[in-house]
Specification:
Strand content: under 5%
Order of helices and strands: HHHHHHHHHHHH
Largest sheet: none
Shape: globular
Radius of gyration: 18 Å
Number of helices: 12
Number of strands: 0
Structural class: mainly alpha
Length: 227
């Protein structure tokens, strides 16, 4: 468990730093979901938004568990090292994207669009949202929306070689994204404007890239831990 705590903190920070990307990917969807709440349910808006996001985060944890099982299966093989290298490269690509320096990661998001085409009709049937269970289920489906940030973090979580750790890390990552998307759903313009600032996006991107470099296997990890 002591080994897990720093990883959980890292996953939480990754979610927070990815807030700008979340706004771009899910901010419009969050606004649409808010508008889809019937007028008579507007008084329960906060609870419905919490249910949306809880469903989304549980989907992340489920994906972490599933991919974590694959990571656990190859933990003692050369494939584990390859998985960690790919995860590190994806995190560096994510940092470049957040900073606005390279958008190649969007091509990876295209890989998940085929799955989303099958899920989207199911999500549409849940609109308008009239109850908390309906909002929770809609959020769980929303969690499978193609997202390079989620894919990058998911591979990093799976590279830990422990399915339970992977699920916990994705849960922490989802909690990190929660404040931004919840603020978007509640129309918190100041929060959104702050996260869209160039300086904030560049700072977040650089930190994610540094985390990707730290994740890359090699002697530099011991040097960084020593400093």
């Amino acid at each position: 468990m002591p080994d897990l705590l720093p990883l959980l903190g890292s996953a939480l920070v990754l979610g927070l730093l990815g807030g700008g990307h979340c706004l771009g990917m899910c901010g419009g969807l969050m606004g649409a979901l808010t508008l889809a709440i019937p007028p008579e349910q507007r008084g329960r808006r906060l609870r419905l938004l919490l249910a949306y996001n809880l469903g989304r985060i549980l989907s992340y944890a489920s994906a972490g568990l599933l991919l974590g099982l694959a990571g656990w299966a190859v933990a003692s093989s050369p494939a584990a090292l390859a998985l960690r290298v790919v995860a590190a490269l994806l995190l560096i690509a994510m940092g470049l994207y957040l900073a606005g320096w390279w958008s190649g990661l969007t091509r990876i998001e295209a890989l998940g669009r085929g799955l989303w085409r099958h899920i989207q009709p199911l999500a549409s049937r849940l609109l308008p949202v009239s109850s908390l269970p309906r909002a929770l289920l809609l959020g769980a489906l929303w969690g499978w929306l193609p997202c390079g940030l989620v894919y990058s973090t998911l591979l990093w979580a799976a590279s830990q070689g422990n399915a339970g750790y992977s699920a916990a890390l994705m849960l922490a990552f989802g909690l990190g994204t929660w404040p931004v998307l919840l603020a978007t759903g509640l129309a918190a313009e100041r929060v959104n404007a702050l996260l869209r600032r160039r300086s904030v996006r560049v700072a977040g991107g650089v930190l994610v890239m540094l985390f990707g470099i730290w994740t890359m296997p090699g002697p530099h990890q011991h040097w960084l831990m020593g400093h």
